[in-house]
Write a structure and sequence with these properties.
Layout (H helix, E strand, L loop, with lengths): L6 E8 L2 E6 L7 E7 L4 E6 L4 E4 L6 E10 L2 E2 L6 E4 L7 E7 L2 E6 L7 E8 L7 E5 L3 E4 L7 E9 L5 E10 L9 E5 L4 E5 L8 E7 L4 E6 L3 E4 L7 E10 L2 E2 L6 E4 L9 E6 L2 E5 L8 E8 L4 E6 L3 E5 L5 E10 L2 E2 L6 E4 L6 E9 L2 E7 L6 E8 L2 E7 L3 E4 L7 E10 L3 E2 L6 E4 L6 E7 L5 E6 L7 E8 L2 E7 L3 E4 L7 E10 L2 E2 L6 E4 L8 E5 L5 E5 L7 E8 L2 E7 L3 E4 L7 E9 L5 E5 L3 E2 L6 E9 L2 E7 L7 E7 L2 E5 L7 E5 L7 E7 L12 E4 L1
Antiparallel strand pairs: 1-2, 2-5, 3-4, 3-6, 6-7, 6-8, 9-10, 10-13, 11-12, 11-14, 14-15, 16-17, 17-20, 18-19, 18-21, 21-22, 21-23, 24-25, 25-28, 26-27, 26-29, 29-30, 29-31, 32-33, 33-36, 34-35, 34-37, 37-38, 37-39, 40-41, 41-44, 42-43, 42-45, 45-46, 45-47, 48-49, 49-52, 50-51, 50-53, 53-54, ...
Protein name: FNDC7 protein
Pfam families: fn3
Length: 687
């Protein structure tokens, strides 16, 4: 093994190491350095002197020994040397509380009696500042803003031995930016803030704040754009510079007033036709206002005012587009809501009302601007009749008769509604139709008609009887009139109408009227037998059945028939009769007709007997009913006809020179001057 080396010197320059120097030992290839502090030891192998032991504790006393080494082994430890490591470097905490100061602080260092701190610009300019202190903090002031400084600090022990030093580079915070300017863009509601660059500033922060809003903009340049500003606001604008040391103080605040907000609560009123009043609420920072009004035909007008309302002239039937802007030094407010206001449509012109019937009037007018449809209103009495149409004509029906109406045509638009200022026109309807209450017969061809109506006293009434026989009229201003000379046997429809200057009413409901049937013009009586008479007559107009009557003090004979003839029995011969006929219509109307009296033929004799007088003669006997009547005897046979007439008062006569050998029919009948011979008296056969 090699010889034991001898330590020349051992010293500590760093708090975690001790450097040992010795003389070389022949034959040694390596050396083992050992440091012991009583609790631990540290060994290291080195090639030659000097050698350094590391990983030691600061401010700690160590026993240092050295051994030489070769292939034969290790030498004995050298005599030890006691060496104390130097103090540890203080660990600095550095910051720049202001733009011209740097604050340095550190934790206490073990065994330190004091500290030395020096500061110098890193670029070498200026002088070094050095401070010694027993405290653990100090502040360097009056420094240059935004400048990088190098700070070195170390501690020393009671013997004044310095320990490790600690170096730290620290920049002072920048100075507040100056010459801050704000350029406001009113259209985009944004601002561009600019300033002079600040020494040592790495970034800048622009703060734009109001009572309700705070906006920031960060940049590394000397300007910044702040978007999304609000209208009608006042902002304080400040700029703060930043670097790795911190921030500057904010720059002096610059006031920014933005453009006013668009006016709100805009109301548009047509205080009177042809005048628009536009009003709005005042806006913050609004110095004056401009109102633009553009009509739908392209014409635009405006109003400039410092008040909150403007008046405009307007025309009917137009739509106006209205916008209100507020202004101040910053510019024009944003576009708010664009309001459209449609004025009431114009009132119809060329108004005409023509009655189509008593309760219907057709109203026409010329089209007007702004009207989507038209409403025609007829107000009269207790009723209102409405008609709505897009056409320029309307028919009002079901109007009350005999009523004055105010007819107004209102133009209507969807946007504004109805123009209620249109002037009405007075129109009176025709009188009401009368109501026929009664029809009475005042005579054979005289009919009285009575009616009821509620028309005015100046109304004239016309009653018309219409039938196949023709037309008959009567006129009155009262409640009745008389129809004269109506033909018999006719059916009529009777109606009444009312007339006035306003027009003519509809006809009343028709009332049927039937006149009594006509009496037959011709009536003939023919005696068929002694007790039967045939009556015939001409047809009576309107008659359906007839009742004929022969009446005498001795009795009455009557028949009721559909025909225009009738056989009447039970006639008394030789009697004067009154003749009457009643013509009866289908509905039961009766006409009583009287005719010339009728006398039945004289009675046929009874008890006719025949006696032979000679071979060529006979005598005819009979019994007369009335001695004042002369009789005639007729003898009729195949060989001749013979007759005889006795003197008045006799009841027999003779017929002579008649052929024999024949069969004769003998009839005895009364003799009349005007009538033909009676053929119905009894017959006798004689051979």
């Amino acid at each position: 093994a090699p010889d034991t080396p001898v330590i020349d010197q051992a010293y500590s320059k760093l708090s975690n190491s001790i450097t040992v120097e010795w003389r070389a030992v022949p034959g040694a290839t390596n050396y083992m350095l050992t440091a012991e502090d009583g609790d631990s030891f540290v060994e290291t192998i080195v090639k030659n002197s000097p050698g350094t032991l590391t990983g030691l504790k600061p401010a700690t006393l160590y026993r240092i020994t050295i051994r030489s080494i070769n292939s034969g082994g290790k030498s004995q430890p050298s005599p030890f040397r006691k060496v104390k490591t130097v103090l540890a470097a203080p660990i600095l905490s550095v910051h720049s509380p202001s733009c011209d100061s740097i604050a340095v602080s550190w934790k206490a260092v073990h065994m330190a009696a004091g500290f030395s701190v020096s500061l110098m610009r890193s670029d070498g300019l200026g002088r070094m500042l050095k401070e010694t202190t027993t405290n653990t903090s100090l502040i360097f002031t009056n420094l240059d803003p935004g400048t990088l400084y190098t700070i070195k600090a170390y501690a020393w022990n009671a013997n004044g031995m310095p320990g490790d030093d600690f170096t730290y580079n620290q920049r002072t915070s920048p100075n507040a930016p100056v010459d801050v300017k704000v350029a406001f863009n009113s259209g985009a509601l944004r601002a561009v803030v600019s300033w002079m660059p600040t020494e040592g500033a790495l970034t800048y922060s622009v703060t734009v704040s109001s009572e309700l809003l705070k906006l920031r903009c960060n940049t590394s340049s000397a300007s910044c754009m702040v978007p999304s500003l609000q209208c009608g606001s006042e902002y304080c604008v400040s700029v703060t510079a930043y670097n790795d040391a911190g921030s500057s103080k904010p720059s002096d605040a610059v006031s920014l007033k933005t453009i006013p907000c668009a006016p709100v609560n805009i109301s548009i009123e047509e205080d009177e036709p042809g005048h628009l009043l536009v009003s709005w609420s005042s806006t913050t920072f609004g110095h004056y206002y401009v109102v633009f009004v553009k009509s739908d035909d392209g014409l635009e007008v405006h109003c400039n005012t410092s008040y909150t309302q403007c008046h405009f002239q307007s025309d009917c039937g137009f739509t106006y587009f209205i916008s209100v802007f507020a202004y101040n030094k910053a510019g024009q407010s944003p576009l708010g809501d664009v309001f459209n206001y449609t004025t009431a449509p114009c009132c119809p012109s060329d108004f005409r009302a023509v009655f189509m019937s008593s309760d219907t009037v057709r109203v026409t007018w010329a089209p007007v601007r702004g009207a989507d449809l038209y409403e025609t209103r007829a107000a009269g009495g207790s009723s209102v009749v409405l008609c709505k149409d897009t056409a320029t004509a309307c028919t009002l029906s079901a109007l009350q008769c005999n009523t004055p109406y105010n007819i107004t045509v209102y133009s209507v638009s969807e946007a504004r509604g109805s123009n209620t200022s249109c002037t009405p026109q007075y129109v009176a309807t025709a009188p009401c139709s009368p109501e026929i209450k009664n029809i009475s017969k005042d005579g054979l061809s005289v009919i009285s008609v009575q009616w009821h109506s509620n028309n005015e006293e100046t109304t004239t009434y016309v009653v018309t009887a219409r039938g196949e026989a023709g037309l008959w009229h009567c006129t009155s201003t009262g409640n009745s009139c008389t129809l004269m000379d109506l033909p018999c046997g006719s059916a009529f429809s009777v109606s009444a109408t009312a007339r006035s200057p306003a027009g003519q009413s509809l006809p009343s409901y028709s009332v049927p009227l039937e006149t009594a049937p006509c009496c037959p013009n011709d009536l003939i009586l023919t005696q068929v037998t002694q007790s039967v008479t045939n009556i015939s007559w001409s047809v009576g107009m309107g008659a359906q059945t007839y009742v004929t009557t022969l009446e005498s003090p001795k009795g009455q004979a009557k028949c009721h028939t559909l025909q225009n003839y009738c056989l009447l029995g039970c006639i008394t011969c030789g009697t004067n009769y009154t003749v009457s006929l009643r013509a009866i219509s289908e509905t039961g109307l009766t006409s009583s007709c009287t005719y010339q009296g009728y006398s039945s033929s004289a009675c046929c004799p009874s008890g006719v007997k025949l006696y032979r007088l000679s071979n060529n003669g006979i005598r005819v006997f009979w019994r007369a009913f009335d001695e004042t009547i002369n009789y005639n005897a007729d003898l009729r046979g195949s060989k001749g006809n013979f007759s005889c007439t006795p003197s008045l008062g006799l009841s027999h006569c003779d017929i002579t020179e008649i052929p024999c050998g024949d069969v004769y029919t003998v009839v005895v009948a009364p003799v009349t001057d005007k009538r033909p011979k009676l053929t119905f008296c009894p017959k006798k056969i004689y051979s």
